[in-house]
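Q: Please design a sequence for this.
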């Protein structure tokens, strides 16, 4: 079944309610104290060096974490959005005694524990911190634990989150690993995920940050590609061409693996299972590796990688029917759209969003293509499709870029939505609007689950590895001229 040529973003792009509440709280703190000459450590700062402490945001790698400004004294930034199964890795930690502490805040009454393991996520248990509600996400208290041993030398320590609930249950500000020493038992020297955007260009747009962070675009390379794009003469649009800004690429399944080179770079097996399209992908994939690879996508010059969580039926992978990525535009003036910058990495959706999605619940909906929906699964989350159709999901990405960074700590904050049809403010550069059309050989119904959980956790990743001349030609002739193309700028549609 052909899908409509104009792909409209889902109406529900709201952030998690808790994130909005925290942003409001941070704004209120700044407003209340802005004229008081009182300085809250970390309100705008990054890590704060306090002897004897490991700041929570100094992780070398993480899963499920985000950082934010904190009102806690000597806090730098705190790490939050932590739920059961999430973890943080700290390198080069000196353990100087058996008395350990953690600075925590929590609003979730379910609570849980923060386990410290040596070496790996499942390594020797060093200590466990019990977590109970403190009365608020910025109501801080210090909890204590006894280390099972005091190993000598620099250690790798994993903080592993455990809870019987599924929701976020704790914020972390810092740890101590025994008495204070002359030098702080610092974690990794790698950039923190909370690092502010740099004004200096990256040496390479394909570098992968340790644990995430702001990654500036290679301005010299981007300027060169932009100049070449601006010099392209678009092809004449023949009469009868559908005037919709669009082209696409069709990709076959490349591989499946419990890896994610954007969120968990260099950590093989650390992710839930993903289904990859385009080149074969693993935890060590970078843009440079993609540019020298082969691909299952049929658009000439497209060596980009695309992936989504694996869909399962009774625990077994559901076969793919097809995977198409539409490249379009949601801005009022498509002639303003520029190609993607080199090395752009983007995540859309939220793997941690675990809410029910009954029929007509808005975005994050699986639906039936080619036939009618004739029922729902027992839990109400999955449609049942009539014979002749199949289960499908459409995932729409943001299409306004900040013009500075090819990645950000949450892999989303360098991208935004148009405002009244215009890319402006923090996100002034219009780029192609990605829309994943994920078709499964399934009629839906009972027994379905994503590797990331409920259907509301559906998400997608994009790592740009288009050859600039091919992408530039498609953007110039098809998107800029509001002309429908297929896999090449020939106005053939399809």
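A: Design:
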């Amino acid at each position: 079944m052909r899908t409509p040529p104009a792909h409209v973003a889902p109406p529900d792009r709201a952030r998690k309610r808790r994130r909005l509440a925290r942003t409001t709280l941070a704004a209120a703190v700044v407003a209340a104290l802005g004229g008081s000459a009182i300085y809250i450590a970390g309100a705008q700062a990054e890590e704060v060096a306090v002897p004897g402490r490991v700041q929570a945001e100094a992780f070398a790698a993480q899963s499920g974490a985000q950082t934010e400004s904190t009102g806690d004294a000597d806090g730098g930034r705190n790490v939050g959005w932590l739920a059961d199964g999430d973890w943080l890795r700290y390198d080069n930690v000196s353990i100087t005694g058996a008395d350990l502490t953690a600075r925590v805040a929590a609003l979730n009454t379910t609570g849980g524990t923060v386990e410290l393991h040596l070496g790996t996520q499942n390594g020797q248990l060093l200590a466990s911190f019990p977590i109970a509600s403190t009365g608020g996400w910025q109501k801080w208290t210090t909890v204590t634990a006894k280390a099972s041993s005091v190993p000598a030398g620099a250690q790798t320590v994993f903080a592993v989150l455990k809870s019987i609930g599924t929701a976020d249950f704790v914020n972390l500000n810092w740890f101590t690993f025994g008495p204070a020493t002359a030098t702080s038992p610092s974690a990794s020297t790698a950039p923190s995920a909370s690092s502010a955007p740099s004004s200096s260009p990256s040496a390479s747009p394909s570098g992968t940050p340790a644990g995430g962070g702001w990654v500036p675009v290679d301005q010299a390379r981007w300027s060169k590609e932009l100049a070449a794009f601006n010099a392209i003469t678009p092809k004449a649009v023949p009469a009868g061409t559908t005037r919709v800004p669009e082209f696409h690429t069709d990709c076959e399944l490349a591989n499946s693996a419990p890896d994610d080179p954007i969120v968990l770079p260099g950590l093989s097996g650390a992710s839930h299972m993903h289904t990859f399209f385009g080149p074969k992908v693993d935890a060590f994939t970078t843009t440079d590796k993609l540019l020298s690879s082969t691909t299952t996508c049929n658009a000439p010059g497209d060596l980009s990688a695309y992936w989504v969580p694996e869909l399962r039926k009774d625990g077994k992978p559901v076969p793919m029917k097809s995977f198409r990525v539409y490249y379009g535009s949601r801005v009022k003036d498509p002639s303003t759209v520029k190609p993607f910058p080199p090395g752009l990495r983007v995540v859309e959706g939220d793997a941690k969003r675990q809410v029910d999605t009954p029929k007509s619940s808005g975005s994050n909906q699986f639906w039936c293509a080619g036939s009618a929906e004739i029922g729902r699964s027992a839990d109400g989350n999955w449609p049942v499709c009539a014979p002749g159709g199949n289960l499908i999901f459409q995932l729409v990405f943001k299409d306004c870029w900040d013009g500075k960074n090819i990645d950000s700590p949450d892999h989303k904050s360098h991208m935004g939505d148009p405002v009244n049809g215009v890319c402006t403010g923090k996100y002034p550069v219009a780029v192609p609007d990605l829309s994943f059309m994920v078709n499964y050989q399934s009629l839906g119904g009972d027994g379905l689950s994503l590797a990331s959980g409920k259907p509301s956790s559906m998400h997608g990743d994009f790592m740009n590895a288009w050859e600039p001349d091919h992408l530039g030609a498609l953007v110039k002739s098809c998107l800029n001229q509001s002309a429908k193309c297929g896999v090449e700028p020939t106005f053939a549609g399809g």
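Q: Thanks. Anything notable?
A: The helical segments are 17-33, 219-230, 287-291, 468-479. The longest strand covers residues 136-146.
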